[in-house]
Amino acid sequence: MSRSPLRQGDASPPPITANLRARWVWIVAFLLLAAAAELAGAAATHRIVQKGRAFGVGEIAINRGDTLLFTNEDEFLHQIYVASGGMTFDSNEQPPGQTIDVHFPSSGAFTVRCHIHPKMLLTVHVQ
Ligand SMILES: [Cu+2]
């Protein structure tokens, strides 16, 4: 029985297959890393309600670059400020229903307070 040229070709595996597979592994690894970096770098927003002369939470942990959105759900004015951790922020008078956004560009611990209601206190931990 004579061997056909096709069968002879099958006998030696194409050496390129292993190379291609290794290249694909690297490409997939690179894409996964890029996606992870994208996720890590994406800034998030977090909602905080102001209701009953208090913030909805007393403490929150966020990432550097995130933004807090403060919504006044009371029937009266608030006026919030940050004066800690090297950060200064002062909102104008905030009427009922209005949302104010506060950006936290650097890490540290910050306190958010209200000029009108001194008992209002929110501690923000920025990682
Ligand atoms: Cu207030």
CATH superfamily of the largest domain: Cupredoxins -  blue copper proteins
With helices defined by DSSP (H or I, 4 residues minimum), what is the helix count? 2
Q: Which residues form runs of ≥5 with pLDDT under 50?
A: none
Just name the CATH architecture of the largest domain: Sandwich
Query: What is the fold named in CATH at topology level of the largest domain?
Result: Immunoglobulin-like
Q: What small molecules accompany the polymer chains?
A: copper (II) ion
Number of strands: 8
Name of the level-1 CATH class of the largest domain? Mainly Beta
- Average pLDDT for all residues: 87
**What separation lies between the terminal Cα atoms?**
74 Å
- What is the helix fraction of residues, given as a range? 25-40%
Strand content: 25-35%
The total number of structural domains is 2
Secondary-structure element string? HHEEEEEEEE
Describe the biggest sheet?
5 strands, mixed
Shape: rod-shaped
What structural class is derived from the secondary structure elements? alpha/beta
Task: Kindly describe this structure.
This protein is α/β, with parallel strands linked by helices and 127 residues long. The chain folds into 2 domains: 5-41; 45-126, Cupredoxins -  blue copper proteins (Immunoglobulin-like, Sandwich). It has 2 helices and 8 strands. It has helices spanning 5-11, 16-41, and strands spanning 45-50, 59-62, 67-72, 80-84, 87-90, 99-103, 108-114, 121-126. The strands form 2 sheets. A 5-stranded mixed beta sheet has the order 2-8-7-4-5, with no helix packed on it. A 3-stranded mixed beta sheet has the order 1-3-6, with no helix packed on it. A hairpin with a 6-residue loop joins strand 7 and strand 8. It is rod-shaped. The mean pLDDT is 87. Bound molecules: copper (II) ion (CU).
